[in-house]
Amino acid sequence: MRVVIVFPHVGYCTGWRPHLATAVKNGSTYHIAQALTYLYSIARHYTDDVIVVDFNFGEHDDNLARVLDYRPDAVLISSTVNSYDSTKQIAAEVDANSGARLFIGGPAVSSNHFLRPELLEVGVPCEFVVTNKNIFDWVGKVFGNEDKSLQFRTFVPDNRWLSETYPAEVREKLRYTVITSIGCTYKCHFCLNPMVYKINYKDPEILRGELEFLAAELGAGSVSVADPFFFMRQAHSNEIMDVFADLGMPWSQQTCLVTLTDENLDRMAETRCTSVLVGIENFSSGEINKPVEVSQFEDRVLRAKSLGIAVKPSFISGLLDIDYETDVAQIEYIESIIARDLVGNHQIQSNIYSPYIPDARDRLLDVPFRFWGVMPVTAADEDHWRRNLALCDLIYDRVFPETRERYQEVRAEYLDYLAGRETMWLKHRPVPQVPLDKRVFVLTSGTVRA
Question: Does the keyword Membrane apply (predicted)?
């Protein structure tokens, strides 16, 4: 069986920071990089005939030709919401030019298939694959059989896809990533992880082999640990840091600010951790289950900085329980930490809220997916939309001034698109009210509404 795994173009938001790029210039983002690694590795367990095609590098037509020339029996597209415009285009082109079976999965499908299915329609025959509960769940649909012995803890990732997919000059700029666990203990309303995943941990010796391969075969001088929350289990984190200490390889990671204790920071520094993403934190919203005090944030940033570790925070404006004035104050605070040299703006994510997870309170705008994460895509009414647009303007004026010119181009494109619509609102059925204790079931094994 011949299989092509496709990573569609990400639109204007490249992942961790909305750089308004038209191409990914710093390699795959944390989430995507590991999605491709595990899709490729699992597929190789069933067939030797597997390739990955990344539409974020090179020309679209050349990438499409590579997909079609491989004469695939199955094409798997792993899509985020941001990349869903590209997904629909590729799906239509594959359907028109190939007899391959088409499968679409990834975060876009995992979060929307059961509660907002209309959002995923691509206009051609395809099968949607939800892998919320188990990263191996898709193989039964594609290959017709499933090796039940495969387990995340002991499964060995195959990173040969990197050299097969990208030329040397591209690989030199890639951010090599690994994951050592899947899942998260926090419950932010717009995040899928805590609702569905049981937390699974990789055997540290599997990680050791993975790192040795990346260093020896691909020349990786450092890696990023892409776990949603690195310190979920302290014993596991300690074992992972022991592996990095043994190999002497610099690394970075993602965690939550409250876990950056003096003890953990000291150990991170000893094992050559260079930076840490502290996820999405907030000072005043109830939508995020990670409350942080300003004094605590600044204390941890300074402590980490004294050890040579950069803290990279993430902020969201336009959350559903925050008023406009509070959002403005937060953006002004972000500007102040840049001015005081606590954190550089290249180390900050500051986005407008996008409804990646279906929420009954959201009213979606009728705009292409490429604008998600960059421009307002939901609002209660036109006045609310104008306030959210003003927040976007403020973010690029105060936080990312070097990107202001590009932002103005994207903003104009966004407004022109809306002006050409009969109405700015997307006609969609409202998301049903689902109690939190039922969401686990509905988002993983629920029934698509007729």
Answer: no
392 is written with which tokens? Answer: 């976007």
pLDDT digits (tens, 9 = 90+) for 294-311: 888 999 999 999 999 999
* Amino acid at site 243: V
pLDDT in tens, 315-361: 888 888 788 999 999 999 999 999 999 998 888 888 888 888 778 88
* DSSP symbol at 96: H
Residue keyed to tokens 């597997």: 50
Residue type, 160: R
Alpha helices in 202-346 (DSSP H): 204-218, 234-247, 262-270, 294-306, 324-339
Q: What is the CA radius of gyration of the chain?
A: 21
Nearest to 241 by CA among 309, 318, 191: 309
This prediction has a pTM of 0.90
- Residues 163, 217 contacting (CB under 8 angstroms): yes
Q: Are 335 and 399 in contact (CB under 8 A)?
A: yes
- Alpha carbon separation from 354 to 160, 195, 262, 359 (Å, rounded): 34, 18, 34, 11
Query: How far is residue 342 CA from its own chain's centroid?
Result: 26
* Structure-token pair, residue 358: 């279906």
What does the buried/exposed string (b/e) look like for 285-315 if buried means 16 or more CB atoms within 10 Å of the residue's CB?
Answer: bebbbbebeeeebeebbebbeeeebbbbbbb
CA distance 397 to 419: 24
Q: List, in order of start, the domains of the chain with CATH numbers.
A: 1-147 (3.40.50.280)
- Residue 317: phi, psi to the nearest 5? -105, 160
Contact status, residue 281 vs residue 297, Cβ threshold 8 Å: yes
C-beta separation of 287 from 195 below 8 A: no
Distance CA 380, CA 367 (A): 16
Give the β-pairing of 223-225 and 251-254: parallel
Residue with tokens 């929307």: 112
